[in-house]
Amino acid sequence: MTKKISVQIFNNNHTLTGTTKHERTGWQIVLSYKPVCPAYCPLAESEFQIDKNPYLAYEYMHKHPMNGVKHLTKPKTGCNYFQHDKKGKIMKYFLLVFWACLFALLPVLPASAGSDAVTGKQLAQDVFNRDRGKNSVLTSQMVLVDKNDNKRVRQFTSRRILENALESQIIRFTFPADIEGTGFLTIEKPGWETEQFIYLPALRRTRRIVTSQKSHRFVNSDFTYEDMERHPVDDYTYKITGSQTIGGVACHAMETRPKKDVHSQYSLTQSLITKDSLVPILVKYFDKKGHHIKTYKVLKLEKIQDIWTELIISMEDHEREHSTFLKIESITYNTDIDQADISRNRLENY
Predict the structure, then answer these.
(1) Backbone angle region of 204, left / alpha / beta, with phi > 0 → left and psi within -120 to 50 → alpha
(2) What is the DSSP letter of 65?
(3) What is the pLDDT of residue 248?
(4) Distance from the CA of 18 to the CA of which of 71, 113, 249, 270 falls in 20 to 30 A?
(5) Of all residues in the chain, what percent carry a pLDDT higher than 90?
(6) Which residues have CB under 8 Å from 322's CB, separation 6+?
(7) Which CATH number fits domain 103-348: 2.50.20.10, 3.50.50.60, 3.40.50.300, 3.30.470.20?
């Protein structure tokens, strides 16, 4: 039996194809790797490592040879392909991708574009201010993957609105039944007070997320409540540590640290931020003891309505050996949303 699979991989220079045998099912699988955004590919070959997730898990061949791959060849067509021996194996097989991201769910890392002479704080402010539309409506999928490759799939909707430089967002889970109706509300207040509420339909009550709970996991994912809110630029210090080119895209490398009086579960984040679109595409999180505990990646980035949009993202918790993937299935910017649609009343009455 032959099963064809189309895989989107962020690599500027190559279209990669090949055939291998899936070790669990015995299927002969034809792989096709095509650059989905030839002019803009955010993940470097050296950074593209997606083991233990719903995708076909490959590490880039030049630095991390895959089981059964003898070499990389370049046929006359100009495309590259993998040649496998008869014992070639797929490292991981993909069940279903998914979601990508409310950008609000991701830590909005301060950043700036343009000249390499930009300061860290300028870069941070530019990232914070980048165009994400005056509002957005989206549907998304979330996949949770544990260390044994067990997967749980969820679906949700989101409405977000930006008014007077303050953002509000409401998320509503629609699948599966055990989480259906669960809602999450974030409201930014003047003076940078951010209120968060979670509605639990089984209990028919709303719970406010207090500061001491910000490090808790949001609905058992690898995102915490702190990850799901924006943070004022002035609360952190920034240092641009250099530049890197990833997949042909120039990036700033930046370190971000919370100031002494700022409550955060992280002591440091190290980010790669694209110079042209001001999107953090790789973020490493360090705890108070300096341990690298989590990694965030943008796996698919496209312009939607002329706005750079993270369509597929991942967050990996290295201590738990657990990952969360988010995939935006549909999104519309600058549409008709009323502030009343994103409120405590709407959270509890839907």
Answers:
(1) left
(2) P
(3) 86
(4) 249
(5) 63
(6) 144, 145, 146, 147, 222, 316
(7) 2.50.20.10
pTM of the model: 0.71
Q: What digits encode the pLDDT tens for the residues 141-178?
A: 999 999 999 999 999 999 999 999 999 999 999 999 99
Task: Write phi, then psi, for 289 (nearest 5 degrees).
Answer: -90, 5
Give domain limits for the chain.
Answer: 2-84, 103-348
Strand order, beta sheet including 80-84: 2-9, 28-35, 16-21, 80-84, 69-73
Task: Count CB neighbours of 274 within 10 A.
Answer: 22
- Look-up of token digits 């059964």: 68
CA distance readout (Å), 35 to 16, 41, 75, 286: 9, 8, 17, 32
CB within 8 A of 67, min separation 6: which ones?
88, 89, 91
Predicted confidence (pLDDT) per residue in 67-98, tens digit = 333 333 333 333 322 333 333 333 333 333 33
